[in-house]
């Protein structure tokens, strides 16, 4: 896709990434824009009326088009080397066959309290002889699914089940990739890092010389690209703004197109990048109203494309982690949607020093450098997991 206009869904994910991360504040965080988009997109495929219109304004799609887009983006993400993606829906209610058919790669299952007599025959089989007293521990079952889907990087659902759920949709995204060129371990040493409060402390900092073509500027933001191994390896871009700049100003530079870039005027760059881990849980539902989604979050929402029951979104939460070290990058995100019923020219040879020694961002994109899989902001001194 490089060199061609991005698909509409890529623009929609980028738009969601920019708007969402702008509202997360200046503290440490890591989120998966594509994970949230996939989860909400699957729900939007069953939205109708003004509820669907509202979700389309945020996601760019609704109804059958949303189902097709979710499948297309999911396959594009899964095609990346080292990336795995999975989505599951568990419900107490009968799910419309059209909704199931529209999401062919989504797993469907049952939650406790399912209306057994109302469910179609295909739900039964191995469970025919199961009494309500023999129902398995569904919290542990879904947590085990999360661990398997993320390679153990995330241990459980972002929100614990309490028995009030009528439908739970979970999207899991996991990445483990090696750099195309690793950072030499012996070159890592403590260097000063100044956090957003102005405090400076030494942190383990990786060092490597990189080609000039891996560095560019977008509106005063320095972008450093670290490609991963493989023909379809992801691209990690670390972004450093001016002192005091926050994620809203800095992170979008990671996916800005070639027309917005100004090249590094040097032959190479000496990169100093902290070794770090980010791990956060984000209540995405609390941000949806600011993003224009309100009808879907209250009784009266129209999700008649999912079930005959009057469903609305009760909670949206995401757990995510990203780890950057000398050998490569690992990341994972689990997004949970819980629903319930309503009531330039080269100069002489120069080497630039680029030190990520103050708050900075990190964005993991697909192999075409277009689709933001993960976006994080490190405002505190790296060293311990957040």
Write out the strand line-up for the largest beta sheet, numbering strands in chain order.
1-17-16-9-8-7-10
Q: Structural class, from helix and strand content?
A: alpha+beta
What is the count of helical runs? Answer: 8
Q: At the fourth CATH level, what is the homologous superfamily of the largest domain?
A: Antithrombin, subunit I, domain 2
Number of strands: 17
> Which CATH-level-2 architecture of the largest domain?
2-Layer Sandwich
Question: Any idea of the CATH topology of the largest domain?
Answer: Antithrombin, Chain I, domain 2
Helix fraction?
A: 10-25%
Number of domains: 2
CATH class of the largest domain: Alpha Beta
Mean pLDDT: 89
> Span from first to last CA?
35 Å
Shape: elongated
Give the helices and strands, then pairings:
Blueprint: H1 8-22, E1 29-31, H2 33-44, H3 49-59, H4 63-78, E2 83-91, H5 97-102, E3 107-110, H6 138-149, E4 167-178, E5 189-194, E6 200-211, E7 215-218, E8 221-227, E9 235-240, H7 247-250, E10 262-263, E11 268-274, E12 276-282, H8 285-288, E13 311-324, E14 328-341, E15 351-355, E16 360-365, E17 372-378
Parallel strand pairs: 2-3, 11-15
Antiparallel strand pairs: 1-17, 2-4, 4-14, 5-6, 6-11, 7-8, 7-10, 8-9, 9-16, 12-13, 13-14, 16-17
């Amino acid at each position: 896709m490089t060199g061609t206009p991005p698909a509409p869904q890529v623009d929609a994910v980028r738009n969601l990434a920019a708007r969402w991360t702008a509202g997360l504040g200046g503290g440490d965080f890591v989120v998966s824009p594509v994970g949230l988009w996939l989860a909400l997109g699957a729900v939007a495929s069953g939205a109708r009326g003004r509820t669907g219109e509202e979700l389309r304004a945020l996601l760019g799609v609704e109804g059958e088009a949303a189902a097709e887009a979710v499948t297309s983006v999911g396959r594009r993400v899964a095609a990346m080397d080292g990336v795995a993606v999975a989505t599951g829906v568990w419900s107490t209610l009968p799910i419309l066959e059209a909704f199931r058919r529209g999401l062919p790669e989504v797993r469907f299952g049952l939650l406790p309290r399912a209306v057994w007599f109302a469910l179609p025959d295909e739900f039964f089989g191995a469970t025919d002889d199961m009494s309500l007293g023999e129902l398995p521990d569904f919290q542990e079952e879904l947590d085990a699914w999360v661990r398997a889907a993320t390679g153990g990087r995330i241990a459980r659902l972002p929100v614990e089940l309490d028995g009030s759920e009528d439908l739970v949709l979970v999207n899991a995204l996991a990445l483990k990739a090696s750099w195309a060129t690793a950072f030499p371990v012996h070159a890592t040493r403590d260097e000063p890092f100044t956090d957003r409060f102005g405090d400076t402390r030494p942190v383990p900092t990786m060092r490597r010389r990189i080609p000039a073509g891996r560095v560019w500027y977008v509106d005063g933001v320095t972008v450093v690209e670290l490609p991963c191994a493989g023909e379809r390896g992801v691209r990690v871009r670390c972004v450093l703004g001016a002192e005091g700049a926050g994620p809203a100003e800095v992170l979008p530079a990671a996916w800005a197109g070639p027309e917005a870039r100004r090249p590094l005027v040097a032959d190479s760059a000496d990169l100093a990048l902290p070794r770090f881990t980010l791990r956060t849980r984000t209540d995405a539902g609390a941000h949806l109203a600011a993003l224009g989604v309100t009808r879907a979050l209250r009784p009266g929402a129209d999700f008649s494309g999912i079930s005959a029951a009057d469903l609305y979104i009760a909670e949206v939460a995401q757990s995510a982690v990203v780890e950057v070290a000398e050998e490569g990058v690992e990341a994972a995100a689990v997004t949970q949607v819980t629903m319930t019923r309503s009531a330039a020219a080269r100069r002489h040879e120069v080497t630039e020093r680029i030190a990520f020694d103050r708050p900075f961002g990190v964005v993991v994109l697909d192999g075409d450098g277009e689709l933001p899989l993960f976006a994080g902001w490190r405002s505190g001194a790296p060293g311990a997991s957040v």
